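#struct-help
A.M.: can someone run this one for me? Single chain, 314 residues.
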Amino acid sequence: MTTSVDVVLVRGSQAASLAERLRVEYPKVQVVSAADLDVDPARITIVAGNVRDDELPVFSSLEWVHSWAAGVESEVGPRLRSSGIPITSSAGNGAVPLAEHAMMLALMLNRKAVRWIDSQRDRRWERFVHSELAGQTMGIYGFGNVGRELALRARAFGMRVIALRRRPDMDADLVDRMFGPDQLHSFAAACDVLVVAAALTPDSEGAIDSSVLVKLPDGAHVIVISRGNIVRDSDLLDALRSGKVAAAGLDAHAVEPLPSDSPYWTLPGVIITPHNGATTAATATRGVEIFLDNLRRRSSNRPYRNRVDVSALA
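D.P.: on it. C-alpha cells below:
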C-alpha cells in the first residue's frame, strides 16, 4: 500500500545524479542518502539500490526495492525474498552493450585477433588465413533483452541466428529458428558460435554441461555474457583442452573475480574480460530511467515494470 509521502533511500554509483533528479522532478518525494544519518530508517518506504537481509528489521516501512542490476540473484537474500516486498530490477539496461560485447568476442575469436595483438607487441609482421562470421550459425541460449539485441547484430553480419528460450512461441520471427528447453541438444548441434545470454535460474544453472558441449560442431566457439554458473567450468575446460571447443570468450564467470590460478587465464584460444561488457554510462542511465518509470507507475497504482519473480531466482 502506497503511503502519502514516499521516503526514498538512494544507494550506489547512481545515487548523486538520481537524488538530484528526484528533488527536481518529484518534489513531493523525500530523498535521503547514506550521508543522511539523522533520518529514521523506519520512515523509508523505497530503496533504490541493495538491501541486505540484516537491514530489513530497521526498514519497517519498506514497500519497494529497486536493484541497479539486471540479474539480482546475488543481491536478494533469503529474508528479502520471503518478505513479500516487491523487488524490481534494471533488466534490459545493459542489453545493447552486452550484445556489442558478444559480437566483439565473436569477431576476435573468429579472426584469432590475439595473434595480431601478440605480433604488434613483438613488432612482428605476421599474416595468416582466418575465418569469417558470414554464413556461420550463432545460437543464443536465452532470448531476452540481450538475445534480441544480439540477434539483430549477428544477422547484420550475415549470420544465421537460432535461439533457445523457455517459451519458444515468443519472438520466433526475430530468428531463423527458435528452440524450446527440451530441444537443447538439437540446438547445440546447430551452433558454430554458442552465446550464453540467459538469466541464472534453477533451470539454467549448470545447463551447459558435457552432454551439451559434445553436441556442438567440432571447433565451435563458446561465448558467455550473462552468468558463469550456467556453464559447467570443468566441462568447458575439458572441451577446450580436447579441441572440441576451439575457443571461448568469457565475460561472466562462476567465481568473480576470476581466481588467479584459474586455467582459463593461460589456456590458448580463451579471451577473458572481467564481467565488464555492460559497464557503460548509458547502462546506468537506462537503469535510472527504469526506476523513474516505476516511480510513476507506483504513483498511479499501475503494475511495476521488471518485477522480480523471487521463486525463479537461483
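A.M.: thanks! Residues 7-92+281-312 form a domain with the Rossmann fold fold (CATH 3.40.50.720).
D.P.: also worth noting: The two ends are 28 Å apart (CA to CA).
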